[in-house]
Specification:
The protein contains 4 helices and 7 strands, in the order ββααβββαβαβ. Helix 1 packs across helix 2. The chain has a 7-stranded mixed sheet with strand order 2-3-4-5-6-1-7, sandwiched between helices. The protein is of the alpha+beta class. About 25% of the residues are buried.
Length: about 190
């Protein structure tokens, strides 16, 4: 098969931002006290890879699957990099990963729920919590510039509710890109799953 025969898919990528903490429109937390959100303060490539593969395995998250242990450790150990994990009754349900960038920007690099926890009102709550932690990130990292902007990108391959959830939380669209990308099968949380 030649490279011109490679199947492609049209992917739309949307970049969204908030420029003030007052932009956040929090979701209503799930009823009861079964859901907790906790920062994973000790960098753990094993745990982070589990979250990444389990959340993104069915929605085309493939860019980090080939990372080495050292690459995961480097990413997780960057000052200002934070992973916040939602647990339901002690079971990991999803996560949000924050990455500090220049000029007071914080990117929500990854956000999502494991498939079994989708559609249960946990996602809006976790995203709201993650956005709030992006806005107050400098309080946990002495010497960091206060956050001036929180941004995220999502695409047409992500979960069907992703874009609407970001917009309901107060994100505004600032850029749209359309590109042809190679069609890649979703690997699931591990090969053959």
């Amino acid at each position: 098969m030649s490279s011109s025969d490679t199947a492609t898919v049209t992917v739309t990528t949307w970049s969204l931002e908030q420029t003030s903490p007052s932009d956040l429109r929090p979701a209503t937390p799930p009823a009861g006290d079964a859901v907790r959100i906790v920062r994973a303060e000790v960098p753990s490539p094993e745990f982070s890879r589990f979250l990444y593969a389990s959340v993104g395995g069915d929605i085309h998250w493939i860019d980090r699957l080939g990372w080495t242990y050292a690459q995961w450790q480097e990413q997780l150990g960057r000052p200002g990099s934070e992973t916040w994990v939602a647990y339901e009754k002690g079971t990991p349900a999803g996560f949000v990963e924050l990455q500090v960038q220049d000029d007071g920007a914080v990117e929500i690099a990854y956000f999502g729920l494991l498939p079994a926890f989708r559609g249960r009102r946990i996602g809006g709550h976790l995203l709201s919590y993650g956005i709030a932690r992006a806005w107050d990130l400098a309080e946990r990292w002495p010497g960091r510039m206060p956050t001036k902007r929180v941004w995220v990108h999502t695409c047409s391959l992500d979960g069907e509710h992703a874009m609407a959830n970001y917009q309901r939380r107060g994100f505004r669209l600032f850029e749209t890109e359309v590109a042809e990308e190679p069609a890649v099968a979703t690997p699931g949380p591990w090969p053959g799953a």
